[in-house]
Specification:
CATH architecture of the largest domain: 2-Layer Sandwich
Strand content: 5-15%
CATH superfamily of the largest domain: ATP synthase, E subunit, C-terminal
Mean pLDDT: 87
CATH class of the largest domain: Alpha Beta
Strand order of the largest sheet: 2-1-3-4
Number of helices: 4
Order of helices and strands: HHEHEEEH
Number of domains: 2
Helix content: 55-70%
Structural class: alpha+beta
CATH topology of the largest domain: hypothetical protein PF0899 fold
Amino acid sequence: MLSTEEKLFEFKKSIRREIERETARINCDIESYRHAQMEALEDEVLSECYRTIQAAVAQIRMEYTTQRSQALGEMRRHLLRQRDEHAGAVFEKVKEKLRAFASGAEYPAWLEKKLSAAAKEYRMRKPVLYVREADLPLRAALEKALPGCEVRASSEIATGGFIIEEPELSYVINESLDSILNEQKEWFFSNSGLRMSQL
């Protein structure tokens, strides 16, 4: 049989073991809790980092798109200005040549020929023939080329050519050099390689 001291010693030993087991279990629970909390914190930090990175990428993408769009717009405006300058220079030279032609010796014959062709092609009753002020001295030849017409000066015609208005039949024939030149601009842009397409 065990003495009281031995029993007390065994009892203390048993309590110590129980305390050690409970301490080990509590330490294990604390370690598990700490580990779970660390993982949760890491996940939260990673999620926050991911959201921050995604927001930064979206911002960079938006800024890039805006800058690219602005740069393309500026480049397009620059190219349009250059195209218009080149086209303007080309058409100014053509206009100068047309003015020279309209001031030359061949112009009256060309004008009469064009009027005669229009008189044959279109049925006219009482046409009104508009020409530039400088062509009014050709009135007799113009009336001969387009019989029955009334010749008037028009401020719409600066370079040369004519406009025939047939009020009774409600149509207009515009053979003014100014109008023909303007019509050629679209053809010029289409065929010169200066048309602006999507960049």
